[in-house]
């Protein structure tokens, strides 16, 4: 069977959070050999380079949301174009606010299930956020909550329904966010559920819960992993996914043959150790795209 082509799209944006450095994430992942390792699996690789995002130092903070909107509109179009050409887009962040554009774009024509791997909920709104950082609001925006200028990127209104989302690895929530998520209807596997049920059960159940949809988007925030595994992130939280747990999730999703698209976000080379986190992102990506032990 001929494998689909993969379209790599870099999004060097650090405007959605306060820790500098994630704008260099696309370079870290490319340097770790993403394209060559996927090519070795038999895929045709097309790298579109990076979209243009204004440098943080050229903007005042009141302009950040407008530039995030502008960048996400570009990502939306690139994602929609890739899907229309039967390509699998991989989006290299950048902070997790890029998901507002990536998930909007890849779901432009058809609803898509989302497996959101993260230490955090990203389910704040401007009214509930303690920091005002957009990367902590991305999931709310995709569900139609928050700033209308972000909610309506690409097409008006919500891009997802709660039943279209499974969250894995959650372990750090703000107080109001916790209450909102518990009432959201989203399937959430915290680290406690993972510890009690095992990661195989969690990953397989995620696919069952998204079985009403033909395709899966994986939105992988590297802080979903334990900081011992992935130190190069801006908001590390102890007690995350292990190396093997993360790989097993990817392997089980790969076995489903439903992968449609991928985000790799929140990689911060400034805080990393010899590009360990960039390398981890690549290792997980190739597992997701079908690399097997045997």
- Which strands sit side by side, in order, in the main sheet? 2-1-3-8-7-4-5-6
Number of discrete helical segments: 11
- How would the global form be characterised? globular
Tell me which CATH architecture applies here. 3-Layer(aba) Sandwich
| Multimeric organization | single chain
Counted beta strands: 8
The CATH topology annotation reads as Arginase, Chain A
What low-confidence regions span 5 or more consecutive residues with pLDDT below 50?
none
- The residue fraction in helices comes out at 25-40%
Measured distance between first and last alpha carbons: 19 Å
General description of the model:
The protein is globular. The chain contains eleven helices and eight strands. The protein has an eight-stranded parallel β-sheet, sandwiched between helices. By secondary structure, the chain is an alpha/beta fold. The chain has one domain: Arginase, Chain A, CATH 3.40.800.10. Strand 5, helix 7 and strand 6 form a beta-alpha-beta unit. The model has no long low-confidence stretch (mean pLDDT 97).
């Amino acid at each position: 069977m001929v494998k689909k082509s993969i379209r790599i799209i870099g999004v060097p944006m650090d405007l959605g959070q306060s820790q500098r450095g994630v704008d260099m994430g696309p370079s870290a992942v490319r340097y770790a050999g993403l394209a060559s390792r996927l090519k070795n699996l038999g895929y045709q690789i097309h790298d579109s380079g990076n979209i243009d995002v204004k440098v943080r130092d050229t903007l005042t903070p009141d302009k950040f949301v407008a530039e995030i909107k502008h960048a996400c509109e570009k990502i939306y179009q690139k994602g929609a174009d890739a899907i229309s050409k039967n390509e699998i887009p991989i989006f290299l962040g950048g902070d997790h606010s890029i998901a507002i554009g990536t998930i909007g774009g890849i779901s432009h024509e058809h609803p898509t299930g989302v497996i959101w791997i993260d230490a955090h909920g990203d389910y704040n709104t401007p009214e509930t956020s303690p920091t005002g950082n957009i990367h902590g609001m991305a999931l709310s925006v995709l569900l139609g909550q928050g700033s209308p200028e972000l909610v309506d990127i690409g097409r008006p209104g919500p891009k997802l329904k709660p039943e279209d989302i499974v969250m894995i690895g959650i372990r750090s929530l703000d107080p109001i966010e916790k209450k909102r998520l518990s009432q959201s209807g989203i399937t959430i596997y915290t680290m406690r559920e993972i510890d009690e049920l095992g990661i195989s059960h969690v990953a397989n159940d995620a696919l069952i819960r998204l079985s009403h949809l033909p395709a899966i988007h994986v939105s992988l925030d590297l802080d979903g992993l334990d900081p011992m595994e992935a130190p190069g992130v801006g908001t590390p939280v102890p007690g995350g996914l292990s190396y093997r747990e993360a790989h097993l999730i990817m392997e089980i999703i790969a076995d489903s043959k439903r992968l449609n698209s991928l985000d790799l976000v929140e990689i911060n080379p400034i805080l990393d150790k010899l590009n360990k986190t960039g390398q981890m992102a690549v290792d997980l990506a190739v597992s997701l795209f079908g690399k097997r032990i045997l």
